[in-house]
Amino acid sequence: MAPMLDYLLSALNDCVWAFDTNTKKYLFISPSIFTITGYPIADFQNTPNLWDDIIDRRDHEVTNNYKNEFEGWHELTYRIIDKSGTIKWIYQKYCHFIDGQTNHQIVLSVVKDLSHEKYAQEEIVWTKNNLEALINNTEDLTWSIDREGKYVYMNTAYRKRINYAVGVMPKEGDDAYAHSGSTDEVNKKWIAYYQRALLGERYVIRHESPNPNSHQPSYFEVSFNPIYKETKDEIVGVGCFARDITERLSIEDALIEQNERLKNIASLSSHELRRPVASMIGLLNILDRENFSNPENEQIMDHLVTVSKEVDEVIRLIVNKTFMDARFPQ
After folding, report:
1. What's the half-sphere exposure (Cβ side, CA atoms, 13 Å) at 211?
2. Which residues neighbour 36 within 8 Å (Cβ) at sequence distance 6 or greater?
3. How far apart are CA 14 and CA 35, in angstroms?
């Protein structure tokens, strides 16, 4: 090869070589072969089959199928094992041609190390799969739509909820406006929710969703979030997150009822019970303790019995408020 061409090819990050299949010798190998494989040029010149030897055995079938293709340029991606034992992904583009001077068959190859891109892609896929597994293992609902109201993404919990509510299992690309509820009125509400977010508003609502079988309501806290382009100058969709808060609201209602019962008990204790207790104390104060045979003591004792019954009645009322109302809330 001409020296100028040799210098030009040597400057490339990709490896270039020309191999004479008749003499089993390399006519040229660019220095980047060492960067890719860890083997110096001399190793390839001394061992013509070295490149085939370092191809990962899992990809032998792929590379062998292309060896008999002679017309035009061919491309394939496969793995090699470099001198350190590291597996690398390789992109190879090559062609066969006949040298007019020697009448020998020459193979021209351009080889690129794809390891960084390949592993980065695999890491992205791995991260995506793990995120989806995490999202799909939660009972919270997650979904997004584009500006036309078409589903872009849905987690498993959302698909099941929509299928449960309207009897249709949604998929990406379906019309979200048509699957939001079991009636046109509910669908119109959701369209209005989405439109608010598409106009740039980020907000949270409480949504009531009746059970189609029992007709008992479930309550969801739903957040709507505009999705922007990377340039932040255009809204391209809406991301939504919903959490079932039915149990939480039930607990809150129970706490409110309990607080009301405690207030009633406090009121009974401070008003209804205080009056007969005060009367009892007053009667005890006028009781003649030095002369129990005093005729007035008999009247005082009769009044004490009456007041004691009043105290007992108030206590019964407090007990009822404490236990019976808790068992049978209004």
Report:
1. 8
2. 15, 82, 88, 90, 111, 113
3. 9
* pLDDT tens, position by position, 246-266: 888 888 777 888 777 777 777
> Strands across the sheet with 25-29, in order?
25-29, 15-20, 105-113, 87-98, 74-81
Q: What pLDDT is attached to residue 328?
A: 46
Q: What is the mean pLDDT of residues 161-169?
A: 84
Assigned token pair, 179: 């699957």
Q: Write a three-state SS string for 157-208.
A: HHHHHHHHHHCCCCCCCCEHHHCCCCCHHHHHHHHHHHHHHHCCCCEEEEEE
Which amino acid is located at 228 in the chain? Y
Residue 230 one-letter amino acid: E
Q: Return phi, psi of residue 218, to 5°.
A: -115, 150
Are the CB atoms for 198 and 238 separated by under 8 Å?
yes
* Counts for the chain of helices (H) and strands (E), in that order: 12, 10
Q: What is the pTM of this model?
A: 0.49
